[in-house]
Amino acid sequence: MRENPVEVLTGAAVVLAAGGFLFYAAQATGYAGPSEGLRLSASFRSIEGVSLGTDVRLAGVKIGSVTGTALDPATFRASTELTVTADVPIPDDSSAVVASEGLLGGTFIEIVPGGSLTTLPEGGEITDTQGAVSLLQLLLQYVSGGNEEGTP
Question: Which GO biological process categories is it annotated with (predicted)?
Fold first, then answer.
């Protein structure tokens, strides 16, 4: 049995392409292992739509990702671990907001920088947070006339 060089090259190209897709999928979903950078924490009322690998953005530019999520049983809040690039100084009075790219877009965490000259250290916590806003709750509130009881 003799191998055709064209078939061998085609098979090698397919294996390389599959490996590239697997590497990209691991990077995009956050399963590529621990990333380097500054680790921060934040506690949200709701992180609906946020998962491991979700972008962390500042002024619309990706500066990191979500590397951990957990429920704090004492406060019933969602604790998140964020890893951001160490070369971007984050003021210690900054806030973190769970934002959406639009009605059908993805969710990300937006860092809104504060005015402090002191920056967050490794392991620092962003205390000013705003959780995800449920589109369904907003629609129900609009249909009910804006009050919580649902009566006009």
Answer: phospholipid transport
Q: What is the pTM of this model?
A: 0.67
Alpha helices in the chain (DSSP H): 5-29, 135-143
Same domain, 102 and 120: yes
Convert the pLDDT of each residue in 48-83 to its tens digit.
888 898 999 999 899 999 999 999 999 999 999 999
The per-residue pLDDT for range 94-128, each reduced to its tens digit, is 999 998 887 677 889 999 999 989 999 999 999 98
Please enumerate in sequence order all residues whose Cβ is within 8 A of that of 13, keeping only pairs 6 or more positions apart, or say none.
Answer: none
Strand partners, 125: 41
CA-based nearest residue to 81, from 129, 38, 40, 134: 40
Say if residue 87 is in the same domain as residue 29: no
Q: Render the burial of 121-149: b for 16+ CB within 10 Å, e for the rest.
A: eeebebeebebbeeeeeeeeeeeeeeeee
The encoded tokens of residue 110 equal 């937006």
Residue 73 is part of which domain span?
A: 38-141
Tell me the residue length of the chain: 152
